[in-house]
Amino acid sequence: MSTSLNNLLMILVLASTCLNQGIVRAQLLKDLPDNALGVDVEDRVGEFIPLGLMFEDERGNKVSLAKYFRQGRPVVLTLNYSDCPGLCVAQLDNLVNTLREINGGGIGEKFDIVTVSIDPNESNEKAGRTKSKYVGLLRDSQAEAGWHFLTGKNKDIRALADSVGFRYHWDKINKRYNHPAATYFLSSEGRICRYLLSLGVEPEQFNLAVGEAREGKLTASLADAIIQLCYYYDPDANRYSADARRIMAFGGFAFTMLLTGLTAPFWFSRRTAATSATAKPAEPEQPSAADGHAISIGGSDSSDAPYN
User: What are phi and psi of 200, to 5 degrees?
Assistant: First the structure.
């Protein structure tokens, strides 16, 4: 099969994958529990966060996000809140465990961590107590200066959350924020290089993501895309839950795409062979003088003369 045909087939398969993933996702969102609707993470890799947004640090100082992106270091961003009944605790506990396994990971030297509260009613004093808890668990002298806990007004929090595709909402019945768990890795210019959807990040994966953000590399994770499609955050269970219908739909679609990719070359080759077989045969070439034809002499036409 020609290179151009291979490229065309690849483009068609990728386009179909993107289109069908969106269709499947839209069809199945209506089946989610009510408290999980509106809780999502949209892919914003390659986009920039608004560094001019204003917040308060744990000491009550007014700061802009730009302050944490002027050091030439990548920034790890999380969106949590101190009164979270379970998900934030699990996410930050696991982050501490990851950092301890990589000996602090170079907080304040190789990268900074910025944790922004999604609760506009959270005070900087409460955020400070939360910071003291987690920094104390790290037992790293650089963590105090490298891990920042910020609070702010609702409009600024929402603007930041929207810029990274972090979808959450206030649950009036249970009096809590329903939100996903995501860890973002941003370049020193505030560009989203990667995000991970999980309550915990393995040390190797964390180091790799920080390194990519330091170099400004953009990474779209296929695993995260599948998690987004086949799982939803269950606020009642404080964890991500698999949706059987989503998984079955995605599995069926993936099988169809795989089968198409495997059989398409066969059908294209058969069609090419059939086209070649039915093509009109080429007319024979006219013999030349070099082949022994009589040559016209004295202006008479001897093209019909026999061979010598």
Answer: -140, 150
Which residues, at least 6 apart from 117, have a Cβ–Cβ distance to it below 8 Å? 80, 81, 82, 127, 149, 150, 151, 152, 157
Each residue of 194-241: pLDDT tens digit?
Answer: 999 888 888 988 999 999 999 999 876 555 455 445 555 455 554 445
In angstroms, the CA 195 to CA 229 distance is: 15
Domain locations in the chain as residue ranges: 36-249
Ligand-binding site membership of 179 (annotated): yes
Longest dimension (CA), the chain: 115
CA distance 117 to 100: 23
**CATH number of the domain at 36-249, please?**
3.40.30.10
| DSSP structural state of residue 186 | E
What predicted TM-score, i.e. pTM, was given to this entire model?
0.65
88 appears as a binding residue in the annotation? yes
